[in-house]
Amino acid sequence: MPDYALMNQYLYEGKAKEVEQMTRDALAEGRHFQEVMNEGLIAGMSVVGEDFKHNVLYVPEVLIAARAMKAGMAVLKPLLTSAENTAPRVGTLLMGTVRGDLHDIGKNLVCMMAEGAGFEVHDIGVDQSIEKFMAAADKVKPDIIGMSALLTTTMTYMKTVIDGFEEAGRGDIRMAIGGAPISQMFADEIGADGYGQNASSAVDLFLRLTGHGGGETNAPAHATDGATATGADEAVVDGTHSTYRILYWQEVPSQVRVEDDAGNDLSVELSPRFAQRIDAVAQKRGITGAEAYTAEWKWSDEQDRDGSAHEVAKAVVAELEAAVDW
Q1: Model pTM?
Q2: Which end of the chain is less enclosed by CB atoms within 10 A, N or C?
Q3: Is the C-alpha dihedral spanning 316, 317, 321, 324 positive or negative?
Q4: What is the rounded distance in angstroms from the CA atom of residue 200 to the CA atom of residue 213?
């Protein structure tokens, strides 16, 4: 029996060679590729995702872990997409990471799993503008458009894409979103048809949206007759108050943490250029990105502001982005 707990730990630590070898060893033992993927890779990356959300890990460490997962998935990809393991065709999926975001590990995993589930998948890559999404949609005629984002500074572009398709008359195309900072509340707020918390749930969502899965979709059902799609924060009443703190590294803001009195909380990572700056310092000092980061950080004092967690986070991030010379 493969030591999946150890494999999870190697992935968490970003040990790509060890993860790749353990993936090969598990297959050589006769373990099914789905078992290896679910228990060895996805389970490990789920822990990374949770720690990222709870400020235990930060963007550089997540990217290191993601590279380790990519090494394992490269071994499994031929099995995931082989004819004998692929389900009958169920629909066409167009996938891309939105403009300004260069992260693709999660998107790539979703694409592989969706292909294995029977979708014809068209991956247009990272840093994609609304014009490129539209051009690709005109070409491949997808049933679903899936958008991915790792950073809160780029996830807002998903609304730009959705609004653009709405204005152009998108017909029956369904819009699905996902990524580390995405929530059902955000999906509802921007009018997406559904949200996938991870790769497996994303594929389940795609199947439901195309009528091939059980249960109801988690789509907000696009507004009709002048109605508006509602989100989890719909119950927040006027007068909502939030508190927030800013995490700094070498006096540069890296994260904003906001909590409102309605029980909503958000953790917002700032520009990807911040991660690049950490990497540059780490390389110069001959240390890891994580070591460079944890050496010189501090939280600001708690501050107050009127508004919901989402409203305050958006405002504070905009102010910081405008003020900092990246």
Answers
A1: 0.55
A2: N
A3: positive
A4: 13
d(CA 268, CA 254): 8
Give the C-alpha distances (Å, rounded to integers) separating 55 from 48, 102, 105, 117, 180: 10, 21, 20, 33, 12
Structure tokens at 177: 């979103």
Q: Are residues 225 and 274 in the same domain?
A: no
Calpha distance 152→318 (Å, rounded)? 11
Strand partners, 176: 146, 194
The distance from CA 221 to its chain's CA centroid, rounded to whole angstroms, is: 22
Q: Which two tokens stand for residue 291?
A: 């070591």
Q: Does residue 180 sit in the same domain as residue 131?
A: yes
Q: Cα–Cα distance between 82 and 125 in angstroms, integer?
A: 22
Distance CA 103, CA 53 (A): 17
120 and 222 in one domain?
yes
Q: What is the DSSP letter of 128?
A: B
Question: Could you say which DSSP state residue 151 is in?
Answer: S
34-66: buried (b, 16+ CB within 10 Å) or exposed (e) per residue? eebbebbbbebbbbbbebbeeeebbbbbbbbbb
Question: What confidence tens digit (pLDDT) does each residue in 186-229 have?
Answer: 898 899 999 988 877 898 899 999 988 644 443 333 333 322 23
Together in a domain, 270 and 303? yes
For the record, the structure tokens of 29 come out as 């033992």
